[in-house]
Amino acid sequence: MKRLVLIGALVAGLVARAEWRMFERRLGLFVHWGIYSVNGYHEQERMRRQLSRADYETAVAGFDAANFRADDLVAAARSAGADYIVVTAKHHDGFCLWETATTDFNAAKSPAGRDLLKEIAAACRRQGVKLGLYYSNPDWHQPNAYNDKSTHQVPPEAGDEPDSMRYLAYVKAQIKELLSNYGEIVCLFWDIPPKIEDASFNELARQLQPGILIDDRGWSKGDYSTPERGIPPGAAFTNLTEACDSVGAQSWGYRSNEDYRTVGYLTRSIDRILSMGGNYLLNVGPKADGTLPEESRLRLAKVGAWYAKTRESYRGVETVPGIVADENCFVTRRGETIFLHYPKGLEATGGNLRPLNRLPQTATLLNTGVRLPCELTDMPSDYKLNTGKVLHVFGIPADDLANESVVIRLDF
After folding, report:
1. Topology adopted by domain 2-313
2. Phi (first) and psi of residue 30, to 5 degrees
3. CB distance 216 to 244 below 8 Å
4. What tens digit of pLDDT does each residue of 324-339 get?
5. Cβ partners under 8 Å of residue 334, min gap 6
């Protein structure tokens, strides 16, 4: 209960700055898009293939965004149930999706010939979706950016002049553009901690966007943590958390011949994070022409179909670990209704909900909307525990739901 009070206080404090209530929205879409989509290998292609700057940046010629329609991207986010989008304004390669005065290495000076971020921001406003921005602290294009204190660095080339003060001024100039010219920006996702402490960056962001929330990977302490490609241990988060993963197992950006995550993996991951009290960013990588791979679009739609049926179990709820002894069952609660989440998958068609010993008025499988039978009984598996009669919910079509996370609502 102390944890719930703590999280409630944290959320209340942040809500005062962020009227859109990020940590009540729960699900967002992450978008990794840049010139790395041209070769379709990985968003860190230059570093992982040890390419020179000149060799890597030939990819600009293929970045035309010829079929990009921002409204289509935002509609795909909505199909997944996402309430906000976080776009990679600049990734490690230094290519900027917006028209910037700081460098010619940007979308408007590429064959795309447009400010792509401006189009995305306008589409978000039209469709009622909030916009957040990702910004990489490493920059493999900018000649002053090399930082031997940090990670994800590419060694300087001839003519580069590593200079942290000049690079910090460059970053501030870009942040001023991003947070001044594109309307409301609800969150800032710094990436790769620079290991240089400078509170002025977050102060600048809050000055330009008073309601903004900022992650923990930047130049000073942020508002929330950002685990990726995995699920932290435990049954409930003790601090504000936004986890992220991608529909692709290999890459965050577009990758040809990608190994796509199963819908079961994605829904179980989302369910686990949300039932622990966190937010979830589900990532896709558009192609160089701006379209989403059909495999990505299909997964967003299937995740959205599942989420539409289960989202009531994540909105306006408390995370209440310990109500049920089964370590595979995560529980959220709203008043006299509790929601049983099984993000690790079901091992059987029923569940022993010890120590609950009260019959609900109804038990509903949210995945299908059907009522489930339940009873108070002494469970054979509890014979050594002397627990008496406990709640048993059964008749779950577990095999039919093997490729999605199961959520059950109990109304008391």
Report:
1. TIM Barrel (3.20.20)
2. -95, 135
3. no
4. 999 999 999 999 999 9
5. 316, 317, 318
